[in-house]
Specification:
The chain is an alpha/beta fold. It has 24 helices and 22 strands.
Amino acid sequence: MNVIEIEHLTYSYPGASDSTLKDITVNIEKGDFLAIVGNNGCGKSTFCKTLNGLIPQFISGDFSGTVSVCGLNTAETDVGTLARKAGYVYQDFENQIIRPTVLDDASYACLNYAMKDYKERGMSALEKCGLTGKHNDYIWQLSGGQTHLLALAGVLSLEPEILILDEPIAQLDPGHADRIYNVLRELNEKYGKTIIVIEHHTEYIADYCKHVMLMKDGNIKWVLPTDDALRRVDELQECNIFPPQVTIAAHRMKKSGKMEPDVLLPTTVMEGKDVFALKENTKVKNSVTPSEKTEIAAEFKDISISYRSVKGAPHIVYSDLNLNIYKGEKVALIGGNGAGKSTLMKMMVGLLKPSSGDIFLYGENIREKKPENLSRTISMVYQNPEDMFIKDSIRADISYAMEVRNIKDTEEKTESLLKRFRLTELKERDGRLLSGGQMRRASLAIGIALNPKILLLDEPTANLDIATRKEIMRTLNDLKEITETVIIATHDMQLVCEWADRIIVLSGGKVIADGSRNEIFGNENVVSTSGIRPPEIFEMGQTLDKNSLCYTIDEFLESFEGRRMEDEDIEKIIGKCAG
């Protein structure tokens, strides 16, 4: 039975020269768990907004074709009715949280529909989303993952048949990400909900989803069972999608003749156990060389900071923190949501003041400094790049900081930054209307406009497809020519392992580990305590050999090979992967 039926859907935004969606015809079955994948700008979010009537009822444009959800035409049915059929949790889910307490927010939609049992519906939705016991809490007491689950509960309280989530784990640590997907699995399997996710994390797609829909240039190329979809490595990578690392590793082995051609590519670590083997006399080296510790760029001395709480005692973020960052280092701050990564950065740029202790930048105490007076020493690029845009064009945003400080040759320096970050052709565009990758590049240009000695980046690769992520990686590597010291806060462990020469692990307001990637990810106690998760290829190597420390696919291929198997073993693996 089809719960969604779409015929010849075409849509273009007002003033756009080309259609975002192009003659789409597709059906989605009731009870499916579908992942929609594709490069940034291919039309994924636009497609999903046609399912709850936002397009064309609230977002105008040229719309043709038919979209039927649970038998209702979305262009002719009011969005209030459609919300009870297709619930939507947006990428910026915080904007869906509007009431002060958890139960109040979870039941608010039902109250608006004048449902007499609105509180009971809210409590039921909280229970299904794993938030039992949180109903009397204030929303600001929740972690990032719990807040996302609350947004889901608010949608779920209306008991829709379909749940749509746009990038549900983009800004979450692995523990919270697992929790989100476990809740979605239960809603799918136990309560029969049809789940649709827009997702870049293919390792989660492999573990949880039933089907994958590939979108490219406004079209749907195919809808396939998950394992079949993820094994189309070349096709996915052409569309800027990064298949699971274990799948790519096996694919590369096949291409080089180091794995039997009949063996199906593994899509999970469990499947990989049967197809990989350790090479003889192999020892993986830690290829990242720590930078030489010379001059101290930033010093935290006996820092304590807490947030006032409306309910209960103040929330202590740091207590007596002592930490040095050295000139020339590439530092990654990692840890779970709420570990204090963003707080640490905001203190460095003067947006937050510690309740006690002192912060020094190149030996100068910044306690009495205003943020604007620190901008030539340190700059921060925010997690949401659109927060960096205050003017109506990128050119104006980049030049603004230089103009207000009467810096000479502002126009020339602006043009140079536009060229360096490949933004010249976009310079008159409003930054808020650019693609994800373009916004990231523009926000970096703004961040380094004053040539700061220290650059802080908060989640620089969140919500990006593989091509845009690689572009940002190249940009990060180029920053050494511009700024002395770079610090990133991130959940992207592939970025950490490929880029950082020093990793600082935060948990419970303390530095629980500080060192190279071997010292961090090779320490099981640190990994389990902090809730971090190394890249999948590291886990694959550890599963095969506890002494292996592989952080990239290249390092894995140096140490492992395809198993040499007899025909009956190959048939066994084929059957196991297919099953």
